[in-house]
């Protein structure tokens, strides 16, 4: 039902708030599962300088600075941290811990092994999302070959003109990842398919919230 609602644009404030409410509830649930698996938040503080697979020497420290970037609200910091550790509770992570029988992507017709990278970058839903993100709401997002998986996942590999530019890009990337994650959760939990343009609107709303809260560029 919600998918039908979000397909009609523009979204009203009420519908947008409903989506945000669902998103928060689902993220809280996912977070509870995550902490159940990985232990207390205290563990998070103990490992601020772990290496990140596939990054050049020196980049991991940049990754952990980005995870805790002051422009990100706590929810996006949590998400960024789980992405950097590759422990976002996607199906492959849950499957490897015996919590799910299937480890494949829940998108209709996909069936690829579900990993954090697949969810946020390789799945056709994510490809569509990134393809329209810049042209619709975020014209300052890097596009084409400049927007790499490592920039999207970790915020590395870009030479921005200024700290302010990086903040704007990084906040937008985090908000867009959050929208993809929320969309996936609505698909898995409620069998709702959220149109890419509605996902972009969710990301834009998250950016506006963060900026209004004083964290934006
Ligand atoms: Zn997929």
TrEMBL record:
Gene source species = Knipowitschia caucasica (Caucasian dwarf goby)
Superkingdom as given in the UniProt entry: Eukaryota
Q: What is this protein called?
A: Reverse transcriptase zinc-binding domain-containing protein
Please report the stretch or stretches of sequence annotated as the Reverse transcriptase zinc-binding domain.
Answer: 62-130
Q: Which InterPro entries match?
A: RVT-Znf (IPR026960)
